[in-house]
Amino acid sequence: MKEKNLKNLINSKSSNELEKIIQAAADMQLLTTALKDVVTQEISEHLVAANVRDNGELVVICTSSAWASRLRFESKTLISTAQNSGFDASTVRVTVTQN
Question: Looking at per-residue confidence, does 5 or 42 come out higher?
Fold first, then answer.
């Protein structure tokens, strides 16, 4: 996503850009919640966020490499859940957050 100047977004005559950002954030939250609901509580506590890129890549962010390994074992479930939630996911990439 191209970086936008917040001042330009707020002052723009068309709020379309800001609405797109708000919708994308809501979609990410919906997807993250759906994914947390299908994994164990232990894993869900370490799942930070998720998003689906335009190329169908489901990106899942977690807290450590150990949890990333556990989430990779759930790839089929994660893709299926994303698809059932209305997202066009076809592959999974699990990454670790930089604290």
Answer: 42
Answer yes or no: are the C-beta atoms of 64 and 45 closer than 8 Å.
Answer: no
- 2 inside domain: no
- What is the crossing angle of helices 16-38 and 75-84, to 10°? 130
CA–CA dist 2, 14 (Å, integer): 18
In a domain, 3, yes or no: no
User: 50 with 58: CB under 8 angstroms?
Assistant: yes
User: Is residue 5 situated within a structural domain?
Assistant: no
65 and 96 in contact (C-beta within 8 Å)? Answer: yes
- Is 7 inside any structural domain? no
Ranges 2-16, 58-72, 85-99: which has the least confidence: 2-16
Q: What is the CATH number of the domain that holds 49?
A: 3.30.300
